[in-house]
Specification:
With 459 residues, this protein is α+β, with helices and mostly antiparallel strands. The chain has 17 helices and eleven strands. The two termini are 36 Å apart.
C-alpha cells in the first residue's frame, strides 16, 4: 500500500525513479531532462516559489476561497475536498510583501472569476522543511481499483454487473486507439493529425483520456510559453495558470460553469486553432507533442510497471486480465463510472474516505502538512487536515486596489478529517458500444499530415 502512494508522488528534488513498463521509447528521466532543460520555463519545475517555500521550513501563507463562511463560523469546522489533492483543503500560495500578501497567479484567477466567494488567509507553520513530493492524480488509478475491489460488497450484484458492463463497453469502443497509443509509446509513430483525431473520438468512451489530453496540453503551454505575461510570472517563480484556463474555456462551451475534462476532446484542426488562440507560436508543435507525451503517459499511468508495453493489447482482452495488466486505466474508469450510480451519493464517504485515510497516513510519515498537485508545481496546494505537527490559523481577507490581501478577522475553526459534500457533473454519453472494438473516426475536418519534431525527444 505504501509503495502505491510512493508511486503516486513525484519528488522534484531527486532524479526520476518511478518503475515503468518495459519497452518505452523514452523513460521518465528522459522526459524530466527535456522538460526541465530544453523548454523555456522548465527551470521552474525545481525552482518555483512554491517549492522553495516548502523546503524553507518557514511559515506558509495560503489562499482559500469559500461560499460557506457563515457555516464555517457557526460549526467551527472546515471540511476538505477530494479531487486532485485526494483529501485536503484546496488553496494557492500567498507571497508575503511589505504592503500585504500577494496571491499567486492561480489565486488571482480564482479571486477574479469567483467574486461571490469569501477569501480566507491560512498560516501554516510546519515542524520542518517540507519535501517537494507532489501527488500526481493521473497515477491514482491502481489505488482507485484496489479501493473498489475492497469495498465492492457495498454495491448490489446488479450494480457491480452494470459497472463491469460499462467499463468493458468503453474499452471495446476505444481499444483501437489504446493499442495505437501503446505502439507510439514504444516508438512506432503515427501521423500526429491522425493520432489526435483518434484520441478525440476515444475520449467519450474513456473519459480519463480527456484528463490526460488536457494535462499534456497544459504542460505544453506552461513550459513552452514565451509571452511577456508568462515571463513576468516566471520572474516571481510561478507557472502561468491562465494559459490552460483560456484553453479549457475556448475548447468547451460552458466549461466556466462546469469544469469537466471528460468534455475536452478537440480534433486536430480544432486543437491547432485553440493553441493558436492562446499563443500562436506554439500551434505548429502542439499535435506532435501530444502524440509523444500522451502516449508515454498513457503507458505509464494505465499499465502495471511489470508489463511490457510492446506486447499489451486491449483488443478482445477480458476484464479480469486487464485488472492485472492495466490497473491504472481500469481504476480510473471505475472511479469515473461509479460516481454516476444512483446510490453513490450515500456511498461516497465510504469509497473516498478510504483513500483519504491512506493519503493522510502517507503524508504524516513523509512530513507533508501541505500536499500539492504534483503533475507540475503550478500552484495547486492544500492543507492536510490531520497533520499532528503543524500550527494553523485562519482569517477572512480583504483585497485592496493593488490586488494584495490583508487579514480582517480571525476565524475560530479547525480543519477536520471530514470530506465536503459530493456532487457529480451531469452525465453526457455521446458514444455507443458496438461489437467492433475499433473506433470509427470522421476525418473529414482533418488537416494534411505534417511531421513535427520536438527538441530533445525522438519522434
Amino acid at each position: 500500500m505504501r509503495d502505491e502512494w510512493e508511486h503516486v508522488h513525484t519528488d522534484y528534488t531527486r532524479p526520476a525513479q518511478r518503475p515503468a513498463p518495459a519497452s518505452l521509447a523514452e523513460s521518465e528521466g528522459d522526459w524530466r531532462r527535456y522538460l526541465e532543460g530544453d523548454t523555456p520555463i522548465g527551470w521552474l519545475i525545481q525552482h518555483s516559489a512554491m517549492t522553495e517555500a516548502l523546503v524553507s521550513g518557514r511559515p506558509m501563507y495560503l489562499l482559500h476561497t469559500t461560499k460557506d463562511i457563515t457555516a464555517i463560523r457557526t460549526s467551527g469546522e472546515l471540511h476538505v475536498s477530494t479531487g486532485c489533492l485526494v483529501g485536503a483543503l484546496y488553496c494557492s500560495p500567498l507571497v508575503c510583501q511589505r504592503e500585504g500578501l500577494r496571491p499567486h497567479n492561480l489565486g488571482a484567477y480564482l479571486m477574479q472569476t469567483k467574486p461571490d466567494t469569501t477569501p480566507m488567509i491560512f498560516e501554516v507553520i510546519p515542524d520542518a522543511p517540507v519535501p517537494t513530493k507532489g501527488v500526481n492524480y493521473l497515477h491514482l488509478g491502481a489505488i482507485h481499483l484496489r479501493t473498489y475491489l475492497r469495498y465492492r460488497s457495498f454495491l448490489t450484484l446488479a450494480e457491480n454487473d452494470q459497472l463491469d458492463h460499462v467499463v468493458l463497453a468503453g474499452l471495446g469502443a476505444a481499444a483501437g486507439f489504446l493499442d495505437t497509443a501503446l505502439r507510439n509509446a514504444v516508438g512506432r509513430a503515427t501521423a500526429a493529425h491522425e493520432f489526435i483525431d483518434q484520441l478525440a473520438a476515444a475520449v467519450p468512451a474513456i473519459p480519463f483520456l480527456g484528463y490526460l489530453y488536457f494535462e499534456v496540453l497544459s504542460e505544453y503551454l506552461m513550459l513552452h510559453s514565451t509571452t511577456p505575461e508568462t515571463k513576468g510570472y516566471a520572474q516571481v517563480g510561478e507557472l502561468n495558470n491562465w494559459l490552460y484556463k483560456r484553453l479549457a474555456f475556448a475548447a468547451v462551451d460552458g466549461m466556466h460553469r462546469l469544469f469537466d475534462l471528460a468534455r475536452f476532446h478537440p480534433r486536430h484542426q480544432q486543437l491547432v486553432q485553440l493553441i493558436a488562440g492562446v499563443e500562436p507560436a506554439l500551434a505548429p508543435g502542439a499535435a506532435e507533442y501530444v502524440r509523444q507525451r500522451l502516449s508515454h503517459l498513457l503507458a505509464r499511468t494505465a499499465l502495471h510497471p511489470s508489463q511490457d508495453a510492446a506486447s499489451v493489447s486491449f483488443r478482445g482482452t477480458d476484464l479480469s486480465t486487464l485488472r492485472h495488466v492495466a490497473p491504472g486505466l481500469i481504476g480510473r474508469m471505475v472511479f469515473r463510472e461509479i460516481r454516476y450510480m444512483p446510490r453513490y451519493k450515500q456511498l461516497y464517504q465510504c469509497f473516498e474516505k478510504a483513500k483519504a485515510l491512506e493519503a493522510w497516513d502517507y503524508w504524516n510519515d513523509e512530513g507533508i502538512p501541505t500536499p500539492f498537485n504534483g503533475i507540475l508545481p503550478k500552484g495547486e496546494i492544500g492543507i492536510h487536515p490531520v497533520y499532528p505537527r503543524s500550527t494553523i490559523r485562519a482569517w477572512t481577507a480583504q483585497q485592496d486596489s493593488r490586488g494584495l490581501l490583508h487579514p480582517v478577522q480571525e476565524v475560530n475553526a479547525v480543519l477536520t478529517p471530514h470530506l465536503a459534500s459530493w456532487w457529480a457533473p451531469p452525465r453526457n454519453r455521446s458514444w455507443k458500444a458496438t461489437t467492433d472494438p475499433r473506433i470509427t473516426v470522421d476525418r473529414s475536418a482533418s488537416l494534411p499530415a505534417r511531421h513535427l519534431s520536438i527538441k530533445g525527444i525522438s519522434a
